[in-house]
Input
Amino acid sequence: MSSDNPCLTCGACCAYFRVSFYWGEIHGDFLVPESLTEPINLSRMAMQGTNQADPRCIALEGEVGGCVSCSIYTNRPSPCREFEAFDEEGACNRARVAYGLPPLEVAPIAA
Ligand code: SF4
Output
């Protein structure tokens, strides 16, 4: 089965940014697995591996630029749920370019 979803062959954002979120997400509806997180301060957590100089989320499976997946996809934290490919601020493409991947073109606005 093939897919046009560029996120399935990228993963750069999961190995480029610090993924931090409100502490309550390890106890709320999404239930991010606490064992894969680390505290940043009294109210915020980070996915393990992302709060360091050379980040890579502990939940990322596969190699950036290859076949990738998130091992906690249905329980991923809010920054991951809200992060968008084709974002106007270019965060997605900053991560892609850092890994030598071609930038995605901005998605056309529906008429
Ligand atoms: S939790 Fe999943 S989607 Fe979020 S950074 Fe980690 S691997 Fe990527």
